[in-house]
C-alpha cells in the first residue's frame, strides 16, 4: 500500500507517508472512541467510516466487521481498526484502478478478480 514504486521496500518518503497515515488512523480511532474505552463498537466504526466518505450496505459492513473482529467480541482495538482501515484503503485503490470512468461499478473476469483479491491480503 505504501510501497508506491513496487520495490518491495519503502524509502524515506514512503515511510513518511505511512507514518502520517498511521497517525491519521490513530487520531480517527481516538475521535470515535467517545467513551475512551480503548475500543470501538461496530456503531463507532460505522460512524468513523461514514465520516471518512465510505458508504457500505449492511451485509458488506457486517462482513467487514466479522473479518476484522477475530475474537468476536464486537469491539475493535486500535490494531484491529488499523488492519481494517488498511484493507479498506487497499480495496479502494484496487477498485479505482479498475473503475476508469469513476462510475462506482466495475466488471471483472476471474483473473482480474484474482489479481484484485491477491493485492488486498
**Structural category:** mainly alpha
Question: Strand portion, in percent?
Answer: under 5%
Number of strands: 2
Task: Give the strand line-up of the largest sheet.
Answer: 1-2
Considering DSSP H and I runs of 4 or more, what fraction of the residues is helical? 55-70%
Task: Give a written overview of the molecule.
The structure is a single chain. Helices cover 59% and strands 3% of the residues. The protein is mainly α and 121 residues long. The chain has a two-stranded antiparallel sheet with strand order 1-2. Helix 1 crosses helix 2 and helix 1 crosses helix 4. The longest helix has 21 residues. The N and C termini lie close together (11 Å).
Short summary of the structure?
The chain has 121 residues and is mainly α.
What labels would you give this structure?
121 residues; 3% strand; 5 helices; mainly alpha; 59% helix; two-stranded antiparallel sheet; single chain; globular; 2 strands
Set down the secondary structure blueprint.
Elements: H1 12-32, E1 40-41, H2 42-51, H3 58-67, E2 75-76, H4 78-98, H5 110-118
Helix pairs in contact: 1-2, 1-4
Amino acid at each position: 500500500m505504501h510501497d508506491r514504486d513496487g520495490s518491495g521496500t519503502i524509502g524515506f518518503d514512503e515511510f513518511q507517508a505511512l507514518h502520517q497515515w498511521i497517525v491519521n488512523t490513530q487520531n480517527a480511532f481516538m475521535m470515535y472512541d467517545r467513551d475512551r474505552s480503548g475500543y470501538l463498537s461496530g456503531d463507532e466504526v460505522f460512524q468513523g467510516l461514514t465520516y471518512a466518505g465510505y458508504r457500505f450496505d449492511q451485509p458488506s459492513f457486517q462482513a467487514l466487521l466479522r473479518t476484522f473482529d477475530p475474537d468476536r467480541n464486537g469491539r475493535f482495538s486500535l490494531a484491529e481498526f488499523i488492519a481494517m482501515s488498511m484493507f479498506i484503503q487497499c480495496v479502494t485503490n484496487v477498485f479505482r484502478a479498475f473503475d476508469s470512468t469513476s462510475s462506482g461499478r466495475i466488471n471483472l473476469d476471474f483473473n482480474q478478480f484474482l489479481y484484485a483479491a491477491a493485492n488486498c491480503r
